[in-house]
Design a protein that fits this description.
This protein has 213 residues and is mainly β. The chain has a single domain, classed as Glucose Oxidase, domain 1 (3-Layer(bba) Sandwich). 8% of the residues lie in helices and 25% in strands. The protein is built from 2 helices and 13 strands; from the N terminus they run ββββββββαβαββββ. The strands form 3 sheets. A 9-stranded mixed β-sheet has the order 1-13-11-5-7-9-10-4-12, with no helix packed on it. The longest helix is centred in the middle third of the chain and has 9 residues.
Length: 213
Amino acid sequence: MPPHLYDITRTVSASTAVWQGDAPYHVEPKLRLEDGWAVNLMTVTTTPHVGTHADAYFHYEPDGAHPATMPLDAYIGRARVLTVSKRSGALLPDDLPAAPAGAERLLIHSHVSDLDDSVFAPEFPYLSVELIDWLVGLGIRLIGLDSPSVDAVDSTALPCHHALYRHGIVNLENLLLRGVPDGDYELIALPLKLDAACASPVRAILRPLDSAS
């Protein structure tokens, strides 16, 4: 990885943590070079929420968009990384070290980025409707977390997911922001063009704005 790029994507492997009851990453060989075939050919099965991913609105809204029709331009552009000290519970505006005015995309860095890919965070900070409403007023179009959800782990009402949908904001989960200094970057984190799915893995990268061209 060139020094001016930050790969903020969790590695997807058989040991990558997923939600309890969800399908872990599994690779099954169908053709193998060692057996005399011309190529290696694998079948991959997993949840679309594995590792770093973008939720689709269909994940929690019956008429919401699938990954194939989510707004692509929201996943590319100016982003601000901000680190929070809160380890668990709902994040409020005062929990951010600064207001991300002018950023359009906010990536929230917490202690969860220090955990191994195989560990499902036993506690993590998540969004609040108050924070989302405040960020909307600042022009934020995308919110990314290194946490596994924008809502509490035991939430069934999912108020933050639904608030994002109401405001037309997209979200990223399970980012890896370890070693990324707070500041402004260009974010590229495109979902795959998947139909009939509720999420998509992404390869998320950051470029400092002075190296973006």
